[in-house]
Amino acid sequence: MSSDADPLNLSDERLAAWEGFLRAYSTVTRTLGAELEHAEGLSLSSYDALIQLARAPQRRMRMAELAEVVILTPSGLTRLVERLEREGLVARARCAEDRRGAYATLTDRGRRRLRKATLTHLAGVRQHFLGHLDDAELRLLAGIWKRIPAAASEPPEGTRAVEAGPPTDRARGRN
Asked: What does pTM read for this prediction?
């Protein structure tokens, strides 16, 4: 068993927790994405963008704000919104108060498509995630998921945040 005092290694238990999280996240999101794509013709990122817009005041958000909550780069979000706009699910408009900015707005067609896709998505969430946990485990995870992003959102002093990408062997605790 490795020692946590060694900055290059994690204990077996800690490594199993980290790798389990990565594997569960990857497997569940890949499955949910495939189901959404097959049933509704929407990627998981598209669904996420639509749901974020549906929850926003007036069903609209600034593009930069939407990029943050959907966890895409600004250019990645622009391409995604362009596809959604071509399908009539989202409309874009320039910000009157900031000519450099733009809003994305969920259209009525987008709301209807989202409503249908949500049935597929929630059925998948129940089947592939919630159905494997009891109420006590769900409460425990909900508390953990609140705590971790808050702690990880501020990089340590003297460092800079880096854009998230696919996990590497170093991120898994291996060299």
From this structure: 0.77
